[in-house]
Specification:
Blueprint: E1 21-26, E2 29-34, E3 37-41, E4 47-49, E5 55-60, E6 64-66, H1 68-77, E7 80-84, E8 91-94, H2 102-113, H3 115-130, H4 140-161, H5 181-203, H6 220-229, H7 234-246, H8 259-274, H9 276-289
Helix pairs in contact: 2-3, 3-6, 5-6, 5-7, 5-8, 5-9, 7-8
């Protein structure tokens, strides 16, 4: 696949995150670019067209292979490729469509390193998540403990509301089938949320690994942002699906035969109803703005932009 643009056609421009469909899970096939189209080819040679430029991210499950041409086209379109385990319960690697804004990375790093700024960011996340100000004169570790207690109670109340047996959030990423149904569905639901959240963070030019409440993981900041909206989007959908299965009730007029697939579809619909994609990047900006630091300016010795884009392409962090 040539890197040169097709004569007579304008260069491709990434769609902003807010205008895309949220997420697509792919398994047991080869992703490739054939006859100019981004396709999934199954073992029988059947092609399924994937509108890659209109998706936030592709979740690649076991049994998926990806050609170099497919990775190039996904990167140009600003679509995140995420390699995950079965049902998305583990994240192994992610392509990097963003990262074009070093000033944003520097700001995020400064906020995480300065204790007072980091605490202000964590307090803002707490306020956005629970709809009330965080308790005063509490450290980050103390706020983490308070949040953990409240989250466990929220899980318990949801299980009670849906009449589901609940023994806590327990699962082993190494043993997907060993978890009970509700924990498998919760894992699938949160995996979908983490995928589009990471894509939004990268598209905005920030680093998924530099977290504030969560630290030390490749997706620490993803967990920070996703947790703010988790209980208004994907967690209730997971409990709703499990309730339908356990009580032999139809879900949205249909019988549930594959709970994990039903959870994915329900999460996709929840993302659309809540207009989540239009909220994620502004949410990231709002959280970081609470740290109170100005956007860093380029140092005097920095080289100017060699060829400026006449207009912005996609979101702020897209390479263009």
């Amino acid at each position: 696949m040539s890197d040169r643009p097709i004569p007579g056609l304008p260069p491709p421009r990434p769609l902003p995150i807010r205008e895309r469909a949220s997420i697509l899970f792919v398994e047991k096939g080869r992703l490739d670019v054939l006859d100019g189209a981004f396709v999934l080819v199954d073992e029988g040679g059947i092609r399924t067209h994937i509108p890659v430029g209109g998706l936030v991210c592709l979740m690649l499950e076991p049994g998926t292979r990806v050609s170099h041409a497919a990775v190039v086209l996904a990167a140009r379109a600003g679509t995140l490729l995420v390699w995950v385990g079965e049902a998305g319960v583990r994240l192994y690697a992610a392509g990097q469509p963003g990262g074009a804004r070093a000033d944003r990375l520097l700001l995020q790093a400064r906020l995480a390193l300065e204790e007072e700024s980091r605490l202000r960011v964590v307090r803002k996340m707490y306020a956005l998540r629970f709809g009330e100000e965080a308790p005063s004169r509490r450290s980050i570790d103390q706020l983490r403990g308070i949040e953990g207690v409240r989250v466990r109670e929220m899980y318990r109340l949801l299980a009670q509301r849906h009449n589901i047996r609940w023994e806590g959030r327990r699962y082993d990423p190494q043993d997907w089938s060993g978890a009970d149904l509700v924990n498998r569905c919760l894992s699938a639901a949160t995996a979908a949320l983490y995928g589009i959240t990471e894509a939004a963070i990268l598209a905005a030019g920030y680093a998924p690994a530099i977290g504030f409440l969560h630290t030390g993981k490749p997706q620490s900041f993803v967990y920070d942002i996703a947790d703010i909206v988790k209980f208004e989007t994907v967690v209730p959908e997971a409990f709703r699906v499990v309730s339908a299965v356990e009580h032999s009730r139809p879900l949205d007029g249909q019988r549930v035969t594959n709970p994990v697939a039903a959870v994915r579809h329900a999460c996709r619909d929840a993302f659309r109803r809540s207009n989540l994609l239009s909220r994620l990047i502004p949410l990231v900006e709002e959280v970081l703005a609470a740290g109170g630091l100005p956007m860093p300016e380029a140092p005097p010795e920095a080289m100017p932009v060699a060829i400026a884009n006449p207009e912005g392409l996609g979101d702020a962090g897209h390479r263009g």
